[in-house]
């Protein structure tokens, strides 16, 4: 279960070294320059921060930087070698400049031999790529940092970006950045607006030589809660991040998202509403995979709806969930610039019993592929009480294929198109696995339910040479404006495929 701990009270000494963002923000200075690092002290900082009124981040970024276009912002380059590069530690760090939409300041500290050292901002260390940079900028801090794998053999590669609110991204070797993780999600799709927590400061522990891992401690703050997060990054052919978080709510929290993932789904074979494009599909993730507490594997294809769609998959003690990119062929997208087939899948594995709740899926209408219009997360059933302490942990796998996957036929394609008449829609769902080759069970059958609405012409098409069974049917929604569908392949009275879920809306 999520751990609920009694809040404790401890005094805080203000140490030098942390840039004071406001007079009230001196509480963040617990571990500044020349202080001894203590991981428990980061949690204590968050605990004490929750006892203070929330102070918004300062709006102190010069207009020169806050008004940058995307192209101007990415043209800013560091003149310095990444921190710890050339030391044989396997990982290096590059602080990221503030600007464009990344206006929030965050302080970055290094932990070396147990001592804390603040990374100071110096404008002379950057090439801005344009003239008229203001003089006397001062120390404006950073917007986040980039992590670079520097293996003893093979090429270095950027494997993680931690920047903006509590967002961070990672990739496996050979991938392009895509899905975005959230350290904390608060009140998404709330009528009064979503609340976006922010990172106030980071402490990065210098990796041991050849360790190929780095531990990062972050201080989270928002109007409703504060928190501490410890993230251990291990880059490679599958990049793994262990996340441990402790929250200290200032108020009662009834809508909290754990293990949040954002991504983009613009259009594809099951949703071509916005498909006046030379490319056959545009999406970073093709579907939501879930392994529920009962051991059932579920697959929910994503789509770009005409109105906001919120789905809740009720569960207890979930074993895993994530947004996956299952389409790995160039031909699926034919995009020479974005290369969506190289975007990471992100699988979340809860560590410990997360209790009762639901995997939530938000699908937001979008008319542009640059928008992250997909969000999924675990929502605990029980509210989080003010002045309590809540601890939870999970493991992220940024990968080509998750380490745990169905020992069953998986959905390899979902196609939707016009039906025979009226509002009817034609569906074709492909299930694929080696077991669907030449020795198919004689009693294989497809089991489909539709609520509300009806279906006709259910038929299986067997393709042993492709190790695929296609299930085709026609949905008749009647006068309904939403139909929930559930489909599975069975043989011998047992499932031989994961469960396909879909919500049809006009």
List keywords for this structure.
about 500 residues, mainly beta, Beta-galactosidase, Chain A, domain 5, Immunoglobulin-like, 10-stranded antiparallel β-sheet, 3 helices, globular, disordered N terminus, carbohydrate binding, Glucan_biosyn_MdoG_C
What does this structure look like?
With 506 residues, the chain is mainly β. It contains 3 helices and 34 strands. The longest helix is centred in the N-terminal third of the chain and has 11 residues, at 39-49. It is globular, with a radius of gyration of 24 Å. The model is unreliable at 3-26 (pLDDT under 50). It comes from Microvirga subterranea. Residues 37-504 form the Glucan biosynthesis periplasmic MdoG C-terminal domain.
The CATH architecture of the domain at 13-164 and 194-248: Distorted Sandwich
**SS-derived structural category:** mainly beta
Helix percent reads under 10%
Distinct helical segment count? 3
Strand content: 35-45%
For the record, give the distance between the C-alpha atoms at the N and C termini, rounded to a whole number: 39 Å
Compact description:
The chain contains three helices and 34 strands. By secondary structure, the chain is mainly beta.
Secondary structure layout plus pairing:
Elements (H helix, E strand, L loop, with lengths): L2 E4 L32 H11 L13 H4 L3 H5 L2 E2 L12 E6 L10 E6 L2 E4 L7 E2 L16 E6 L7 E7 L3 E4 L9 E3 L2 E2 L11 E8 L8 E8 L3 E10 L4 E11 L6 E8 L1 E3 L14 E2 L3 E5 L5 E5 L7 E8 L3 E5 L20 E7 L4 E8 L10 E7 L7 E12 L10 E9 L6 E8 L12 E7 L2 E10 L4 E9 L6 E9 L2 E2 L3 E6 L2
Parallel strand pairs: 4-12, 20-34
Antiparallel strand pairs: 1-26, 2-6, 3-7, 4-5, 7-8, 8-9, 9-10, 10-16, 11-16, 12-13, 13-14, 14-15, 15-26, 16-25, 17-18, 19-20, 19-22, 21-24, 22-23, 23-26, 24-25, 27-28, 28-31, 29-32, 30-31, 32-33, 32-34
């Amino acid at each position: 279960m999520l751990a609920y701990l009694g809040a404790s009270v401890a005094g805080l000494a203000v140490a030098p070294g942390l840039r004071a963002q406001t007079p009230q923000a001196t509480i963040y200075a617990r571990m500044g320059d020349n202080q001894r690092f203590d991981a428990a002290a980061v949690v204590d900082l968050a605990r004490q921060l929750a006892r203070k009124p929330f102070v918004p981040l300062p709006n102190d970024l010069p207009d020169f930087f806050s008004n940058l276009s995307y192209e101007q912002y990415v043209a800013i380059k560091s003149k310095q070698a990444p921190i710890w590069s050339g030391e044989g530690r396997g990982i290096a760090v590059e602080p990221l400049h503030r600007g464009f939409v990344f206006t929030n300041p965050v302080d970055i500290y290094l932990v070396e031999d147990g001592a804390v050292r603040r990374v100071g901002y110096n404008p002379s260390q950057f090439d801005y790529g344009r003239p008229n940079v203001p003089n006397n900028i001062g120390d404006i801090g950073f917007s986040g940092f980039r992590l670079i794998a520097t293996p003893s053999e093979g090429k270095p590669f950027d494997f993680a970006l931690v920047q903006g609110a509590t967002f961070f991204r990672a990739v496996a070797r050979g991938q392009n950045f895509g899905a975005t993780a959230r350290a904390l999600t608060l009140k998404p799709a709330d009528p009064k607006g979503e609340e976006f927590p922010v990172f106030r400061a980071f402490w990065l522990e210098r990796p041991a030589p050849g360790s190929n891992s780095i531990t990062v401690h972050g201080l989270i703050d928002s109007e409703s809660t504060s928190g501490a997060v410890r993230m251990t990054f291990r880059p490679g052919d599958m990049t793994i991040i262990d996340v441990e978080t402790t929250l200290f709510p200032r108020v009662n929290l009834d809508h909290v998202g754990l293990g949040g993932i954002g991504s983009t789904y613009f259009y594809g074979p099951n949703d071509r509403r916005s498909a006046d494009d030379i490319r056959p599909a545009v999406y970073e993730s093709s579907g939501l995979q879930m392994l529920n507490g009962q051991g059932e594997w579920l697959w929910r294809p994503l789509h770009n709806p005409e109105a906001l769609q919120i789905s809740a998959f009720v569960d207890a003690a979930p074993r895993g969930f994530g947004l996956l990119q299952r389409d790995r062929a160039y031909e699926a997208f034919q995009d020479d610039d974005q290369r969506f087939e190289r975007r990471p899948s992100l699988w979340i594995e809860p560590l410990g019993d997360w209790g009762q709740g639901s995997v939530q899926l938000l699908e937001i209408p979008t008319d542009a592929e640059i928008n992250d219009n997909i969000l999924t997360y675990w929502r605990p059933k029980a509210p989080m009480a003010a002045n309590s302490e809540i601890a939870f942990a999970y493991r992220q796998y940024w990968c080509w294929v998750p380490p745990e996957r169905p020992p069953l036929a998986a959905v390899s394609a979902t196609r939707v198109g016009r039906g025979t008449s009226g509002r009817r829609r034609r569906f074709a769902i492909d299930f694929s696995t080696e077991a669907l080759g030449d020795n198919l069970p004689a009693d294989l059958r497809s089991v489909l339910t539709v609520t509300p609405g009806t279906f006709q012409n259910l038929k299986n098409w067997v393709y042993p040479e492709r190790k695929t069974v296609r299930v085709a049917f026609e949905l008749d929604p009647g006068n309904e404006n939403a139909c929930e569908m559930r489909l599975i392949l069975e043989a011998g009275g047992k499932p031989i495929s994961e469960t396909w879920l879909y919500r049809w809306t006009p």
